[in-house]
């Protein structure tokens, strides 16, 4: 009978597991994860919607638009798309405004990576229009709830 037949796992694997745990403990002591980074990571994970569709960025005026000479602080224009749904957003220093197409009522949450508070909640009218007097700061994304569907945009830096 082989000496490994008595054990449900290999001794080398057992030793590797102990080594891994010791390395984790050493890293936690010698190079701990900053509390802010850990909090942001946990918040990002909790914001993950398994049922949500991802709306990908199809237009960003910072990348795709031709610069206008003399414009000192032009608004940033963004377009997100998933399937038949399009979200156009204009981001300025005064806030943001946008429209859901095809036009429909929706609840929109402005998600921010560095915020502790609950996301800003906006409501799109029957024409799909929404506004906010608070410009996003740092990384942000939008979560839209239209009827029974949840759509989340890609994350961008304001």
Strand segment tally:
10
Order of helices and strands: HHEHEEEEEEEEE
| Overall mean pLDDT | 81
Helix content: 10-25%
**Percentage of residues in DSSP E strands:** 35-45%
Describe this structure in words.
The protein has 158 residues and is an alpha+beta fold. It contains three helices and ten strands; from the N terminus they run ααβαβββββββββ. Strands 1, 2, 3, 4, 5, 6, 7, 8, 9 and 10 form a ten-stranded mixed sheet that branches. The mean pLDDT is 81.
Give the topology.
Blueprint: H1 11-30, H2 35-46, E1 53-60, H3 61-64, E2 76-82, E3 85-92, E4 95-101, E5 106-112, E6 120-124, E7 129-132, E8 139-146, E9 149-153, E10 156-157
Parallel strand pairs: 1-9
Antiparallel strand pairs: 1-2, 2-3, 3-4, 4-7, 5-6, 5-8, 8-9, 8-10
List keywords for this structure.
alpha+beta, 10-stranded mixed beta sheet
């Amino acid at each position: 009978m082989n000496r490994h037949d008595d054990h449900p796992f290999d001794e080398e694997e057992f030793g590797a597991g102990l080594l891994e745990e010791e390395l984790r403990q050493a890293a936690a002591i010698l190079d701990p994860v900053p509390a802010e980074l850990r909090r942001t990571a946990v918040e990002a994970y909790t914001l993950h919607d398994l049922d949500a569709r991802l709306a990908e960025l199809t237009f960003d005026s910072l990348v795709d638009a031709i610069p206008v000479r003399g414009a000192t602080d032009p608004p940033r224009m963004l377009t997100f798309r998933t399937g038949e749904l399009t979200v156009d957003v204009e981001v300025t220093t005064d806030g943001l405004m946008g429209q859901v197409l095809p036009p429909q009522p929706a609840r929109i949450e402005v998600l921010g990576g560095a915020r502790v508070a609950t996301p800003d909640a906006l409501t799109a009218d029957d024409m799909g229009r929404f506004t906010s007097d608070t410009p996003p700061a740092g990384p942000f994304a939008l979560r839209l709830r239209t009827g029974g569907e949840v759509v989340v945009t890609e994350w961008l830096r304001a």
